[in-house]
Amino acid sequence: GELLAGEARKRGFDVELVVPVPLHPSRLFERGFNQAALLARPVARALGVPLRPRALARTRPTPHQAELDRSARLANVAGAFRARKPLRERVLLIDDVRTTGATQNACAEALRAAGAPRVEWLVLAIAPAIAYP
């Protein structure tokens, strides 16, 4: 999280809110924590903006993205997120890994549908294209 916070400060994101990619409640129960939310906390603090960990909801459980090829990843998360309330803020979306961008794109679509005028994203790691099937 501190590594991402430093990167966020360096990049000077012009955002008003930090939102982590949510887990489905069953996955959260299984894992016990949301890694994106843990990463997002120091980023929000570094940028001096609110962290809203429940701004997005995962509407259905989805298979692990790591087990899917690119087209299956896109289909897997399509429509899987929704904003809990209308948004007027510029949002920085936080996740742990970006491979195809399917999750970040689906989340950004839900945030924009709720009224967010701009959605940017920051991730801890970007997987090389050869890393997924």
Q: What are the defining features of this structure?
A:
133 residues; alpha/beta; three-stranded parallel beta sheet; two-stranded antiparallel ribbon; 38% helix; 20% strand; globular
How far is the N terminus from the C terminus? 28 Å
Strand content bin: 15-25%
Low-confidence stretches: none
Basic shape = globular
Please work out how many helical segments DSSP would assign.
5
Largest sheet: 3 strands, parallel
| Main sheet strand line-up | 1-4-5
Q: Structural class of the secondary structure composition? A: alpha/beta
What gyration radius follows from the Cα positions, in whole Å? 14 Å
Q: List the secondary-structure elements in sequence, H or E.
A: HEHHEHEEHE
Averaged pLDDT, please?
89
Helical proportion, percent range: 25-40%
- The number of E-state strands comes to 5
Explain what you see.
The protein has 133 residues and is an alpha/beta fold. Helix content is 38%, strand content 20%. The protein contains five helices and five strands, in the order H-E-H-H-E-H-E-E-H-E. A three-stranded parallel sheet has the order 1-4-5, with helices on both faces. It has a two-stranded antiparallel sheet with strand order 2-3. The chain is globular and about 35 Å long. The chain starts with a helix and ends in a 7-residue tail after the last strand.
